[in-house]
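Q: what sequence does this backbone want?
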């Protein structure tokens, strides 16, 4: 068996481990972050459970930390009170980014982790099966429900060789993206093996598993080996280590061979993480901004490299350079070692330990600005500036570009600095607040921005309405429901946030949806890629969207649509996509959903279109009841 199969087998509750079959697995740990967490906990409350049933659940605050008014702070207070009451560890704002913190302090090889954030696979770097999901699925896992998923194909990414100086883990995952693109691993797990993995530290492995999300993968995983042991020992958690390896003769559904020695610095061009080219090809393009941070590249290793490359150098006059460290541990080390001084002396702006600019919370680039970021996503408008051009690269490339003022191959910086990682990390868990021993006395604090989840009705058998929008391929949840400083604070308020549905690509969508009383969305390939935000399903549901018909769907968004009672349907013949226009009136008969046969009539031009779906029996029952909450409530009644 391969490693993914071993861990899944140990956690299997229902189903068979055959690619494409629906399986249910036991979840050992959960994580939430504040932007998806408020909704997840409102849903958890609706499930009527006294205490979480997991081994460990952690609620992080890292996304909405700008606090431009009371709303973010109200959400934090709500989350803290919920955590205390229901048995959840609370990571205070300022402690750091959920994935970095989880890797440092909680991730355990061989266990399962479900997180309401698409980059939860970061913890795959330590050898756990860590999966991103919608808040409702995470809430259900906290309530003790298993997690349902399609058994993925397991793809072996076989690494040989050793990275050359200035070529990094980020370039490894960019190479994977260059080869397979943003939908190359939908319903697949990327399992890394080979001699090459021995040359990669745990944080470097985590950079790779983190950004594996951008391939559409269900998750990515590295074995747990001697390097993992050393990392966990250095985190004071040696006793939680155990070796986790694939069998010698393990079988895989597919293999990708990468020789690390042959890689060169790579960069993803606007506006897709899959648009990867060698840095050398875009070298010389003048930049306005560079930022090192996000859950992909904000570990101590990354910031030590930044500090040592910046030592004695200055940021170009026309460039704004910022860092957002992944955790307090990281910044404390930089302070103690004196390395933070090199960063500040060079002219950097030091931001909070949080997601920050990665999700458009500040640091928007100037008009038509060029920004080189070490993040994982560069979707249109995500930076907060609609016409900005965002490039994704390694910390090394970001620093070289910031020093020279234009995109620069980092090898131009000369000698590669030798960095010394600490034998023991600075361990200070004081910003993790343990839950109250007796939750019954804890009162939940709700601010005025926290609105209850709207009630949704069961599904009709025949759906009729207008096509409210027709979009192309690879539409991300950032297109469907953007993040950013203006919209993120509305995450606990569905009526308000729904006003921004599709606002980056079609500012009239909201008023049209209201006027027409809902309708349908037509999508291309990989509809709903990117973030796990279930708001990209709840807001359309609130606006009366009944079904999304697309060429294919991204995994998490597909599940979120079902959870909130929107039917995800697929063109049997992708060419039929051309037979529908925005404004057409459609009728979809769902009588044959169980048999896999769905007919859609385009009442505007008389065309009949055959649709199919990827729904399990369980998901159809859920859809017919109006979504997962209604389904769970019904189940608990019986
Ligand atoms: C993201 O990187 O897009 C986010 C913001 O972390 C999202 C979660 C969210 O929208 O709150 C994700 O990746 O799931
Ligand atoms: Fe936060 Fe960005 Fe990571 Fe999402 S991708 S969790 S916004 S740092």
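A:
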């Amino acid at each position: 068996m391969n490693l993914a199969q071993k861990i899944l087998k140990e956690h299997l509750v229902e189903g068979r481990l055959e690619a494409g079959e629906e399986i249910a697995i036991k979840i050992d740990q959960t994580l939430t972050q504040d932007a998806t967490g408020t909704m997840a906990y409102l849903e958890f409350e609706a499930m009527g459970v006294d205490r979480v049933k997991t081994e460990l659940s952690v609620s992080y605050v890292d996304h909405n930390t700008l606090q431009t008014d009371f709303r973010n702070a109200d959400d934090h207070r709500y989350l803290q009170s919920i955590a205390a009451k229901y048995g959840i560890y609370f990571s205070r704002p300022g402690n750091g980014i959920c994935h970095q913190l989880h890797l440092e302090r909680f991730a355990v090889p061989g266990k399962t982790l479900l997180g309401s954030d698409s980059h939860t696979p970061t913890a795959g770097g330590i050898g756990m099966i860590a999966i991103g999901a919608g808040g409702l699925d995470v809430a259900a896992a906290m309530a003790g429900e298993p997690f349902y998923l399609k058994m993925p194909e397991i793809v072996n990414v076989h690494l040989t060789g050793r990275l050359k100086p200035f070529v990094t883990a980020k370039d490894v995952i960019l190479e994977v993206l260059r080869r397979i693109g943003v939908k190359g691993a939908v319903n697949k797990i990327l399992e890394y093996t080979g001699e090459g993995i021995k040359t990669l530290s745990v944080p470097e492995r985590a950079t790779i598993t983190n950004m594996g999300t951008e391939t559409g993968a269900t998750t990515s995983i590295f074995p747990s080996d001697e390097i993992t042991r050393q990392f966990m020992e250095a985190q004071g958690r040696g006793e939680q280590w155990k070796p986790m390896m694939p069998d010698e003769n393990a079988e895989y559904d597919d293999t990708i061979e990468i020789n690390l020695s042959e890689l060169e610095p790579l960069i993803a061009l606007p506006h897709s993480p899959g648009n990867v080219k060698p840095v050398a090809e875009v070298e010389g393009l003048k930049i306005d901004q560079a930022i090192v941070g996000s859950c992909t590249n904000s570990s101590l290793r990354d910031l030590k490299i930044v500090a040592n490359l910046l030592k004695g150098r200055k940021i170009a006059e026309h460039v704004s350079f910022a860092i957002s460290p992944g955790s307090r541990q990281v910044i404390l080390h930089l302070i103690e070692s004196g390395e933070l001084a090199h960063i500040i002396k060079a002219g950097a702006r030091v931001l909070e330990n949080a997601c920050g600019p990665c999700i458009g919370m500040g640091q928007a680039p100037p008009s038509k600005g060029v920004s080189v970021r070490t993040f994982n996503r560069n979707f249109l408008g995500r930076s907060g500036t609609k016409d900005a051009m965002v490039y994704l690269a390694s910390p090394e490339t970001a620093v070289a570009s910031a020093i020279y003022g234009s995109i620069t191959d980092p090898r131009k910086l000369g000698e590669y600095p030798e960095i010394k990682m600490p034998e023991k990390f600075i361990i200070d868990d004081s910003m993790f607040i343990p839950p109250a021993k007796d939750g019954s006395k804890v009162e939940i604090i709700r601010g005025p921005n926290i609105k209850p989840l709207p009630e949704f009705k069961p599904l009709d058998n025949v759906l009729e309405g207008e096509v409210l929008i027709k979009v192309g391929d690879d539409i991300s949840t950032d297109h469907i429901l953007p993040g950013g400083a203006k919209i993120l604070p509305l995450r606990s308020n569905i009526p308000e946030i729904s006003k921004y549905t599709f606002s980056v690509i079609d500012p009239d969508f909201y008023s049209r949806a209201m006027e027409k009383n809902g309708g349908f969305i037509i999508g291309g390939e990989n509809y709903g890629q990117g973030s796990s935000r279930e708001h990209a399903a709840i807001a359309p549901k609130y606006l009366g969207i009944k079904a999304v018909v697309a060429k294919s769907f991204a995994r998490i968004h597909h599940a979120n649509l079902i959870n909130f009672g929107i039917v995800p349907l697929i063109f049997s013949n992708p060419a039929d996509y051309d037979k529908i226009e925005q404004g057409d009136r459609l009728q979809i008969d769902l009588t044959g959903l169980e048999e896999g046969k769905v007919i859609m009539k385009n009442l505007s031009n008389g065309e009949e279109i055959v649709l199919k779906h990827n729904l399990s029996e369980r998901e159809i029952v859920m859809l017919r009841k109006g979504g997962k909450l209604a389904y769970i409530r019904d189940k608990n009644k019986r």
